[in-house]
Amino acid sequence: MLVYANKFDFEPEYGVEEVIKIIAAWAGRTAKTFVDPVKLNGGIRNFSVNGYSISSWTNCAVIDELNVPYLFNFRLVHQDSKLKGRQWITEVGVRQRPGSEIVECSVLLKTDEVSAKVVSQIKVTRPGLVNSLVEKCRPVSGTPGLYPKSLTIDNASAYLADVNHESRVSPLVVVSARDGEYPVSPEVIRRQVLGLANVVCIPADEDTFQLEEIVGRRYMSFSGGVRVIFPGRDSSSGRYVETVLLRSEDYAEFGRDEPTLASEVLAVITHRSNISLQRAHISSEAVRLEVLRSKLGNAAAQARSEDSSEEMKVYAQLLEAADEDLACKDSEVAALTIRLESYEADLRRAQSTIESLKHRIEGRLAAEDDDSELSKVFLTIREAYINIKNGSAMLFEVLSVIGALYSDRIVVLESAYSSAQESDKAGFKHSSKAYELLEILANAYWHLMAEGYGDQQAKNVFGNSFTANEASLSKDGRKRRTFDYRGQKIFMDRHLKYGVKDSAAETLRVHFDWSASEKKLVIGHCGKHLDF
């Protein structure tokens, strides 16, 4: 399990050698032995001592004549001191590009369990190595969390502008006092989130009521609580800034087996940042691949020399082909990464829209009687949304949320709800994909149709997941795709699709029609594949 991921840019006074020395010194202190930084930089294979295993990989031996980055990866592995069956793995990656004084450094902390039986809670923390690197290697200007900031009445307007600024990419951690003291020192929190977020302290004697009037309750914390404010996201209903409030009374201040407030703050942040930072990690696989490519390039260059035999020149061609194949794979991975990041951005925008609407709904609910019918409806929608977010929603719930959130654009017929329930009974497995397609239908596709475009443009937003019509339908096939709407029989051959198996649990078809006069989409079926 990935516990912690981070990435820093340093400008060490003595270059990359200083970074390696700090890593070696930390590894030595941790494993209670001496680790030679020169040998570490040359590569160590599974050096075991006192229950610790140390490994390193580098390309320093193959970069003397090549204009390629210096790469290094270090790994320290040890057993959990209290829990049998769990290993802790700390990895550090280092990169320095030719001609640059900047040393990039990525840090990972993860666990490896022998089986699913090892389920003890993990206290999220960052390796002590991070503090040593930051103190001695001069992080570049702009690194989040280098210094704590203060939130006062005098700078409240500037703080609010920073919260909503489009260029903000790092979370803000707002720490408040209780009875004149901080339950957990802001400095402790700052050290935990260093490189990931900026810490903002509200002075113990500050008038928080006046602060609230300026910045709003959503961007404040009170009575020793801590609020994490994430960078804003654009949604269809405007810009939305997600926040998470942690109350000091809910967390024990001390104790290894209980989460502290500082640890929980770090957990909230890393839950959203770990995946992207893991992708940027300088892994041992990346170092070894670069070494392989350098060796292939050198071997090919030698084989191409004028005094080489014809056989060696053929060998050179094979080496060059192998190198081109590696480069092609790198390009494919890069392209897939870009696509994945694009999908994640779309998902975040959709989540922002839902969160924004949820926030509005909750605000309206506060003024309603808890026993009112409207309250019950909204609570049902909220529960369904939570299930969608955690991946446990049923298809019926997905359809209900879409029908409720986009009631001005979409009409869901009873036949669609019935077909969704049938799929749920069969154990439908792809509710997240169903939500993704229906959300696109209600937004991008609806806008195209409302502006007078045709189905040809819909392919641009759905790709292969959309079919405008079905050929060679039997009489019964057309009947299955015909639904009652406002007293009329509507034939719906337009449909969204996912999966090809003849299984209600694995396959999704959403048949719908466009009512131009009402500017609404009418969904007649949402469930299994309909026979032709």
How many domains, in number, for the residues? Answer: 4
- What would the principal axes of the Cα set say about the shape? globular
Distance separating the two termini: 46 Å
Radius of gyration: 29 Å
DSSP, total strands: 20
Structural class: alpha+beta
> Which quaternary structure do these chains form?
single chain
The helix tally amounts to: 15
Major sheet: size, sense and barrel closure? 6 strands, antiparallel
Mean pLDDT: 83
Characteristic terms for this protein:
42% helix, alpha+beta, globular, 4 domains, 20 strands, 532 residues, single chain, Glutaredoxin, five-stranded mixed β-sheet
List the helices and strands and how they pair.
Elements (H helix, E strand, L loop, with lengths): L1 E9 L5 H16 L5 H6 L1 E6 L2 E7 L11 E10 L6 E11 L6 E11 L15 H9 L11 E2 L5 H9 L7 E4 L10 H8 L4 E4 L6 H8 L10 E4 L3 E3 L2 E3 L2 E4 L14 H19 L4 H20 L6 H56 L7 H17 L5 H11 L4 E3 L1 H12 L5 H20 L4 H8 L3 E2 L7 H6 L1 E4 L2 E4 L3 E4 L9 E8 L4 E8 L5
Parallel strand pairs: 7-9, 8-9, 14-20
Antiparallel strand pairs: 1-6, 2-3, 3-4, 4-5, 5-6, 8-10, 10-13, 11-12, 15-18, 16-17, 18-19, 19-20
What would you say this structure looks like, in words?
The protein is α+β, with helices and mostly antiparallel strands and 532 residues long. It folds into four domains: 2-137; 149-273, 3-Layer(aba) Sandwich (Glutaredoxin); 284-362; 368-527, no CATH class. Helix content is 42%, strand content 21%. The chain has 15 helices and 20 strands. The protein has helices at 16-31, 37-42, 129-137, 156-164, 186-193, 208-215, 261-279, 284-303, 310-365, 373-389, 395-405, 414-425, 431-450, 455-462, 475-480; strands at residues 2-10, 44-49, 52-58, 70-79, 86-96, 103-113, 149-150, 172-175, 198-201, 226-229, 233-235, 238-240, 243-246, 410-412, 466-467, 482-485, 488-491, 495-498, 508-515, 520-527. The strands form five sheets. The protein has a six-stranded antiparallel beta sheet, sandwiched between helices. Helix 1 packs antiparallel against helix 3.
